[in-house]
Structure formats: structure tokens, C-alpha cells
User: What shape does this take?
Amino acid sequence: MFNTHYTDVAIIGGGPAGLAAALAARRAGAEHVTVLERNHELGGILQQCIHNGFGLHRFKEELTGPEYAYRFIPQVEADPNIHVYLNTMVLSLSPEKEMTAVHPVHGLISLKAKSVILAMGCRERTRGALSIPGTRPAGVYTAGTAQRFVNMDGFMPGKRVVILGSGDIGLIMARRFTMEGAKVEAVVEIMPYPAGLARNIAQCLEDFDIPLYLSATVTKIHGKDRVEGVTVSQVDNGWCPIPGTERYIPCDTLLLSVGLIPENELSQEAEVSLDPRTGGPIVDENRETLISGIFACGNVLHVHDLVDYVSDEAEIAGEAAARYALKQTADGVLNATNGKVDKFAIKPGDGVRYVLPQRVTKGAEVDLYLRVSQPMDAITLSLSGLTLARKRQVRPSEMLKIRLKAQHWESLLEAGNAEGRELCLAAEPR
Amino acid sequence: MAIDTQIGQELKRKMTCIVCPTGCQLEVEKNADGKLSIIGFQCRRGEVYAENEITDPRRVLTTTVKIRNASLPLLPVRTTEAIPKELLAKAMEILAQVEVTAPVRTGDVIVTNLLDTGIDVIASRDMKRTEDVA
Assistant: This one.
């Protein structure tokens, strides 16, 4: 048997989202905040992202990943009422906000919180999810795993590299491998446009003359014990390889940078409903999930391209989770204004891949985060017919932010185009 | 793609600004009188970037050096400012020879005056000594 510990706000994950959420929850008045982190240190994925470019929006500086993390870690460690459990893996979470976790000293522990913040981040999509034909030799890595090997553990996974997928981690690793003396033969992207930020195409590929093959994919992996090469083929609009376009590229390593998947096993166990478009929980403007008192932020909610926005989102969740915890009485029953507020659904329309939050309280001034479904030169963003903003040079890889203001609500409600408590956000080319 | 087209004395180059995630598409034209005309930037930093990219292209170098007595074998480091692009490879060779000992604090100088640039290489994270780690 084991004892149950009690806390006000429990945060699962001590990466950028968990760190900012913990500090925000304390600022908002939560007495005890508990951070559960499975790694041996705080900081999450930032610790292996040693390149610069983090924090431009938030700190007006170009920080490396670890430096960005250190804008938060000392404050978390200095606060005696933020309890950090390292090397601690949360095994289960219930809708009643009870967790079991494994701790290296205390063994199996049980924790009950008034509110919970999901901040578990995401995982990389692996070869198994892609069904690439060929043999199964050593030398196939996800880009993030290779990043950890090279930047933290001191191992070079290979000398001659092909990268499948043009996500930012893959682009960053193309540069990193080159700087460490490996030859990056090519980056291969199935879409007709790159998945990563334009600046990373410029500073990671063009700076080193690394070719980028668009509308192409790896159609075979060669080699018995170790990767010896890959076959790359052009694809048609339906992603089908075009016969006759095959080219063989000798290499000893294939890196996969083919997308990130929010890590929501615990969320699902707690009966939190997910949005199939984001892969993360459905939330309102407070980042509260459909399970009252369970909040989510960071890459577990939707995959971000900028950590600055993760911190902003985590502060919203941290503050709201603190407010929720403070409203609770000792016996765990809510004593005020829970539940019965007027929510509107925000749905993605034409040209929009997803929009978050998916639910918004009537009249609330909120920032809407969205991704478009394909690159467009110039767009008008409209909510159920009402123009909100115009943007230029938009791409799915760059998350957009627009403010839904009080006057927008007035127009929407007056014009009667908010019927059925559902609003539709569309991106029309102009 | 950085595309150069040289027509007589005139130079035209397309480039992506790398100053921030917006990634503005810039066009720089060097007129016959040697003056640069730059279009496509959305902020002043983009204009400066394009100018530097023609006259003195620079990059911040981020890499690792070996570290002893720490929980990890590598310490991430970076140059305090961008260094000339053509020095990147040489800088990597120098940093491959560097080995430090924990403890190290963020911002500690690891290499002073890298390749006579007047620019230092600093630690970009704290690294405790292994025996200090509980």
C-alpha cells in the first residue's frame, strides 16, 4: 500500500509548457503546485535543441533551447511551494484527478490534485507509421532521437545521411550533421512545399548546398545489417510514386522528420475528448478540456512551431488551473460558477486545417490560433462571414494568431450568423 | 533559394530573411553605382540582414564541447554574436579540441576571442558536477 499525496495543481511534464504553467499557477494564487517529470532534469526537449532562435517574441532575443529553459527553471527551483518530482513517470490519471506514478525512491506513489495540467508534449512519428518498403537495417532514426544522440550523448549516428521529411527538426539536424562532418545527401519531402520554417530552409539547407527534393519520398530502404542506401521517387498529387523517377542515393543513415504526435495516452485514460485534427484535447479559451478541472497546454494540445507560443498558452492554462483549484472547497466540491457558461464551438472552414481553442465562451476576447491547409499568397480570415484579419504569405508550417474582439462578437450576434452556437473560421485567398 | 543573376555590373539576389520565424522573401539589387536596393522586408532588421548578407554574411555558431565530471558528456555552447560564415568550419575544428570540467554556469566563457573575431564562445546551459547531483 502507498500513501496518497495531495496538491492544488498537478502538472504532468516539466518541459517548456509545464515550467511556464507552474510559475503562472503560483502567480495566480495556487498554494501548492506539483510538477511530475519523467526525465532526470527539467526543460524537456529544449535541452537537446542547442541551436538558437528561441524566444524572439517573448524575450526579444535569440536564445538557444537550454537558455530558453533557464529563463524558467531557476524560478521553479527557487519556489518552495513548487514541488518537482524528477525521474517520475505518471502511469495513470483518472477524471477525478487522481494519479499514480513511479518515483525512484518512494516507488509507486498516488497523488490527488484539485486541478491537473496536461503538459506531456509529443512524440515523433516513426518508420512503422510510414510503411516504407525495404529491409529493416540499423541506421534508421527519427530526427529528434538523432538530435539527442549528437547534442547530449556524444554519438554520431552516421556519416552519410538522407533525411525524409522537411520538418524543422530534420532541417536543423541537416545543418548539425554537416557541421559535425557528416555528408547530408538530400532532404526529401512528399509535399510540393517544405514543412519547416522558411528561415530553416535558408540557414540549414541553402547555407550548405543541401538539395531539397519536393514531391518526392523514400520508396525503398537498402542494406541488410546497416542502411546502404535509399531509393527516392517523385510522387504524383495523390502521393503515389511515379514509375521511372527512381534514383538511388547511397547513405548509411536515414533520418525521419515526418511529423509529431501529441502524447495523449494519459488524457484518454482520464476520458478527455480529443480533436482528430490536432491530435490533442478539445479545449476552451482557458485551455480547459471537456473534463472539468483538467487543462492542457504545449505540444500535448497541438504541435507548435514556436516555443514562445507554448509558454503563452501554458500561462493561460496555469492561471486557469489555479483559479479552478482555489474555487474548490475542502471536500472537493465546486462552490461557484462551474459548468453553466455559454460556449460557442469554433470550427475550421475552407482553407483552415485546425483552429484552437475549439470552444469559446460567448463574448470572450481571445486569441485564436490556426494553421492554414496549404500555402497561400494572401488570405482573408473570416469567422462565419465576418472578416477578422488579412494575412500574407501563409503556410501550414507557420501557426497564425488572430484576436477575436468584443466588437466581433457584437457583429456576429447582431447579424445572427452565430446560430447553432457554432462559428466557422475560413481562410479565403484574395 | 539564394539566386544570383549577374547582368553586367548589376547583381540581383533573392534570399529568405533568417532574423525571425516570419522568413520574409527579400530581393536585393546592386545598381551600377554600387548602391543596394532592398525590397520585401517587413521590418528594419530584414533590411540590415540583406545588406550584411551581401557585404559580410554572418551566422551564430551553436555546437557542443566535451565536458568532464558532468551527468552528460557534452556541454552546449554558442558564440556571443554571429561570426563570419567562412569561419564556421574552422571554429568547429577549434571547438572539437576544447574540453571543460563541470561545474559550468550558463554564460561562462569557454573560448575567448574566437579566431581573432573579438567574439567569445559561451556555455548555453548550467552543468553541475556529478558528485553535486543528488
User: Anything to note?
Assistant: Chain B has two domains: 3-55, 62-132. Helices of chain B lie at 44-55, 88-96. DSSP finds two helices and eleven strands in chain B.
